[in-house]
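Hi again,

Forgot to attach this to my earlier email, sorry! This is the prediction with heme C bound. I've pasted everything inline since the attachment limit keeps bouncing my files.
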Amino acid sequence: MKATEHLAGARFWVLVIALLGAAALVAYSNFASRDLPPEPPSTATPSEVEVSRVENFRLLDQHGESHELFYYSDARAIVLISHGVGCPINRRYSRRINELQAEFAPRGVRFFLLNANPQDDRTDIKKEADEFQMAQPILKDDTQFVVRGLNVTRTAEALVIDTNTWKIVYRGAIDDRLDYGTQRAEAQHHYLQDALQAFLQGDKVEPARTQPRGCLIRLSGKFDAGHPPPTYTVDVAPILRAKCFACHQEGGIGPWTISDYHEVAGWSSMLGEVVRTKRMPPWGADPEYGHYSNDASLTLEEEKTLLAWIEAGTPRGEGADPFQGQAPVDQGTWSLGEPDVILDFPAQVLPATGILPYRYEWIEIPMDEPGWVRAAEIHMGNKRALHHVVILLAKPGRSFQDLLRESNRSCFVAFVAGNTRYEFPAGTGKFVPAGSRFFVQLHYNSTGREEVDDSTQLALYLSDEEPEHELFVYATSDRSFVVPPGAREYPVTAVTTVTRDMVMYDVGPHMHYRGKSSRLIAEYPDGTSEILISVPYYRFDWQMVYRFAEPKRLPKGTRLVSEGVYDNSAQNTQNPDPSQTVRFGIYSRDEMHKCYFSYRYADEDEPQGDASQGDES
Ligand code: HEC
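Structure tokens for the complex follow:
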């Protein structure tokens, strides 16, 4: 062996020893960091289980705005602080949290409060936040699944999350100023501040864990200790049948099939993820503002049942498998009986992959006489691929250009997968003059293999006589907006004034891929106002029409204000190109701002005036 090799060997051993030493040091400091600061006797139970990685979630805040944790991946760190209305420790920390936010927000730290108290509703939380000047979005963890996942048992616990790894780098008290029933004038240890400081400098966070002081969070219902876990056969299968099976059946649009216990248990982790992030079932309306007859969302109880079942390890339960040997729901028969008119759609051949641009087709309506349509149903020929269908009515002589210009009025009916029939409200119908045509927009998803759709059909059901009321469609609309490149929350509004008393039946916000949220507000002539619908998490891929369980009466003079928020940043994963300035346009790379609604006039006895609404924008 040559001398240089000896030297290399010696260097190697020095390195190994140094590494071992460092490892021992790290192990020691890890141990030290878990040492809790001295504390007076307390009943607090520290969380036993370490959370290795924070799971994604989507929650609404006190203003009804939607926040997805992983959306904030461009922050350097996220601070989550558990919160409860009326908790004295939360209240006494509110100013301090604002100070910390003022110090660290400019350095890329985002602050959120997290409220999982079953007794606190949005009104309570808003009031508390106003009174105690809490300047952070307060996320409502209705299912309590987020606090459970994070092992948070008390309010006023701060968690610092590293957005690179989604690991918790600090958790515990904000500082040592407050304790149960006592407070010091000054904190001696500024745990949260020091942790953020160290983290941002790339230093080790020490201590990484302290004992939080706060009010206990009451876990309720499904998560009560001693509550028997939900089972597949008894609790879970009925929910899947009611809320998921229409799409997740053999040949349906959902990419996996609910066929038996084995299959569902296999998908259960994904199932948990789509429920936590509100991706499934597709539905956007905030339940705080209205009830809808076609509501497809999970109730809070259903969400809890699914999540508790997954948490309990997906127990099967007793009895036969409710899904085994199930025939598909839709067997190709018309659910409303024999149609008066059936229209065949032209065949479509679809490539295996890629985002498929909308397809458009003209379809002749084989009606020699004018007619009143009372209901329509669609048979989606290729259920794996066909996502939604919007049908515009072109009265005789109307061209494509006319339709575009009159698009606020010409929408006839819209269907999405899983929601394929529409009976117009009782006493109403849509008038179709002889010689009309439909102009049809088809949205297909690529499925990973080439697909053909050669059997989509539309059925029309006619009334024998003229209905009491004609059903119309209109939309608020703005075409003048300019969304700057990268803009994260760009608001656009449109206003239309109701010129005759009317009854509104449904609403359908319409934006494209940069659409983030949408609301329709009614400002009544008496000065009061009401949010008719709020869609905090808008998705272009799911063009929903929300039908009011109780139709809305709107007097003449009501201003209808639609407010859309656009996210043209790179954080919006749907964004086709964050570097573009975006304006109105019909293509999905452009944007739109509209909110459609169906209505009838409520003043039919009075002389008929001009039927149009009055746009202000
Ligand atoms: C209206 C049709 C529809 C309904 C109802 C529906 N799904 Fe889906 N589901 C889909 C489609 C389509 C996809 C494929 C992804 C997409 O297009 O967003 C999907 C995807 C999924 C996935 C795969 C993960 C993913 O995001 O691709 C899971 C898991 C899932 N759904 C679970 C559920 C559960 C659970 C329910 C009921 C609580 C449900 N779905 C209700 C249509 C539906």
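Confidence is low (pLDDT under 50) at residues 1-49, 607-612. The pocket of heme C is lined by residues 243-244, 246-248, 253-255, 267, 270-271, 274, 279-282, 296, 298, 417-418, 445 (CB under 6 Å).

That should be everything now.

G.
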